[in-house]
Amino acid sequence: MKYYEIVLLIHPDQSEQVNNIVTSYKKFICKNKGSISKFEDWGRRPLAYPIKKIHKAYYVLMNICLEKNQNIILDLETKFRINESIIRYIILHTKTNRTIISSILKSKDEHQENRSNLLKKI
Questions:
Q1: DSSP-derived secondary structure for 70-108
Q2: Using 50, 70 and 90 to split pLDDT, how confident is the model at 103?
């Protein structure tokens, strides 16, 4: 098995279509004997620097497991490049399957918890 981590930055104008875009990639991965071990929707976040005059993007993280077929990754890259809704993407090969929650999602949850606790005190 080979493990990959994929981060997608989707154009903010396509926020209603994010589920459809991500679902199509999930189906493609599963159809090609792959599995998604972790999926995180980080939501709309500011970019570190403007890309094509865009200052925010919709972030999605996927950890996938594939059998030793490298063509799936090449096909995914081609699909990402062709799709105009995807501003940027990165595909990283990892040694192990990562299933723990990312620090970005943890900090988002902690922020919401702190906010709800603060509102309860008021």
A1: THHHHHHHHHHHH-TTEEEEEEEEESS---SPPHHHHHH
A2: low
Assigned architecture for domain 2-121 = 2-Layer Sandwich (3.30)
Cα gap 46→20, rounded to integer Å: 22
pLDDT, tens digit (0-9, with 9 covering 90-100), for 26-52 = 999 999 888 898 899 888 999 999 998
Distance CA 28, CA 110 (A): 33
Q: Which of 58, 49, 65 is nearest to 22 (CA)?
A: 58
Token digits of residue 5: 């981590």
Cα–Cα dist 16/30, whole Å: 23
